[in-house]
Description:
Blueprint: H1 17-21, H2 25-88, H3 92-120, H4 127-141
Helix pairs in contact: 2-3, 2-4
Amino acid sequence: MAISSQERPPAPAAPPAAAVGDPSIGDLIGEISQDVSQLVRDEIELAKAEIKQESAKAGKAVGLLGGAGYAGHVVVLFASLTLVFALANMMDPAWAGLIVTALWAVGGAVLYTVGRKRLRAVHLKPEQTLETLKEDARWARHPTS
């Protein structure tokens, strides 16, 4: 059984030419919100990476300060041993103990100085993220193609 041309439904009218390729306001707002969401996610990831990098530097500096604390402990230990040797022996072992104690004191001072300098070089503020956020804000105020 064939359908005649009279029984077929009429073909839908073609949409106006201007509406075919133009997205609606809702579509544009949806795209903008997706772009902003992606931008925020990217900035958060960048901030995480920067903070992780700076935290690693801080950890190394704290390790050096921990080494300085250990060296300070050793200074006290050798100072105590020096006192014991000074009292228990006649002369020379006490002088040797004082020399070792002085060397440990110098080593601890060097570790402390280097650790403090490295800790001052740590910047926990994510500089690169802040700069890209400023660029994004400038672009949002004056978008260019």
